[in-house]
Amino acid sequence: MERLQKVIANLGYCSRRKAEELIKLGKVSVNGIVVTELGTKVKKGDSILVEGNILDNNKNYEYYILNKPRGVVTTTNDEHGRKTVIDLIDTSTRIYPVGRLDYDTTGLLLLTNDGILANKLMHPSTNIEKTYIAKIEGLISPLSIKKLKTGVIIDGYKTKPAKVKLRSINKKTNKSIVEITISEGKNHQVKKMFEAVGHHVEKLKREKYAIFDIKGLNVGEYRKLTFKEVSTLYSLFK
Asked: What does CATH list as the number for 63-125+215-235?
């Protein structure tokens, strides 16, 4: 048995303090009965309704956004003893990354133990958009940008149309910074797309994934998704 406000917070709906406010305002019910007493305790299987939203108290799902550093592998364990993204999250729950980022790629990565949501996000048919910032060798031309936008041939197939924006060029260093948004998730896709138009990617960072970005998260930092964020993610597939 656990205190109701703690359970609501652990399920990601809101903070514990906010949960206490909602309880006192009569906006929470347990098994169909409105609860206003902060000392109320609940158990697994109890039906909890908060502001009309049903919370699933039978499942202990956790959802995280991580700003992945370079030199960390996107896997649950590594046979070579390298640090993994799981090592960066302080939880005893067995979570796993949604998709992957290369060893030398930084940026936004989702992790969870919700297999249903993870599979939906990774399925090719969902067309989840992912935005990357690439530092590339050479001064990219308008023609190359147009090719990336319309699709290039990699590994024997043509990539789907992409959104591409030139951020900056540096003639002194012979480098370009390019923003690219894709809706596929092929292996090393962004790097291969730039190689297809004659540019090697020196650095790559994923800034956005679906509805999320990494604003406010320093490299190596993470945060839990809120209940409303998870609900919004699920709503993408309705």
From this structure: 3.30.70.580
pLDDT digits (tens, 9 = 90+) for 105-138: 999 999 999 887 888 898 888 889 999 999 999 9
Q: What is the pTM of this model?
A: 0.79
Catalytic residue ranges: 102
Domain chopping of the chain, boundaries: 2-55, 63-125+215-235, 129-209
Give the torsion through C-alpha atoms of 189, 85, 63, 187, to 10 deg. 10
Can you say whether residue 111 is alpha, beta or left, with left for phi > 0 and alpha for psi between -120 and 50 degrees? beta
Q: For residue 16, give both structure tokens.
A: 């514990």
CATH 3.40.50.450 fits 129-209, yes or no: no
Helices (H), the chain: 4-10, 16-24, 115-122, 142-150, 189-196, 227-235
